[in-house]
Amino acid sequence: MKKSLILLFILFLFFSNPITSQEVSIDGRLKPYLDNFFELCDQYDISYNEKLFVLKKIAIVDTLNTSSHGSTLGMLQRDKYQKVENIVVNWMAMLDQEILKIVAFHEFGHYFLEYDQHVCQDCGIIMSVVNTSYFDIANDWENQVKILFEQSPAYRKKINSTIISVAQNFPQN
């Protein structure tokens, strides 16, 4: 009797805790950039692990729009419920490693740093819609990363919640 109660309890725990994580397919060509991005997330105390394991893949693909009038260098792909399931980068970005890094960080910024929108049309920062000079961004990389993280919605939320928490714990007269 005791063994069956323990078994029943274990089964209850197993089925009452839905498993939400899955294996994420990460393209090896993007992995070094993702690792670097996560190191920066750790420095800025921005969590990413839970979001990572909701994804199906982070990949370089040949299916994004490519034309002489403009190309899509990266995007977040969503399921029918509008939940992000893939982060993809156009194969064309691989023509230059600096462009690949910028496009990867741009897409990682959308997802992990919660940039729902671009910050400008073409203002020379990572989260622009268009970048007429990826090389200017690459040459200013440390500053660009600082802007990317410190102006991100995820970081601002964290800072604001910290300020509110400190204010609530401050003794009032």
Short description:
The protein is an alpha/beta fold. It has 7 helices and 4 strands.
Q: Features of this protein?
A:
4-stranded mixed beta sheet; 173 residues; 4 strands; alpha/beta; single chain
Overview of the molecule:
By secondary structure, the protein is of the alpha/beta class. The chain has one domain. 47% of the residues lie in helices and 11% in strands. The protein has a 4-stranded mixed β-sheet with strand order 1-2-4-3, with helices on one face.
Layout of helices and strands, plus pairs?
Blueprint: H1 2-16, E1 25-26, H2 31-43, H3 49-52, E2 57-61, E3 74-78, E4 84-90, H4 97-112, H5 134-139, H6 141-150, H7 153-169
Parallel strand pairs: 1-2, 2-4
Antiparallel strand pairs: 3-4
The largest sheet is:
4 strands, mixed
By DSSP, the count of extended strands is: 4
Mean pLDDT level: 86
**Domains counted in the coordinates: how many?**
1
SSE pattern: HEHHEEEHHHH
Gyration radius, in Å: 20 Å
Residue stretches low in confidence (pLDDT < 50, at least 5 long) are: 16-21
Q: How large is the share of residues in beta strands?
A: 5-15%
Distance between the termini: 60 Å
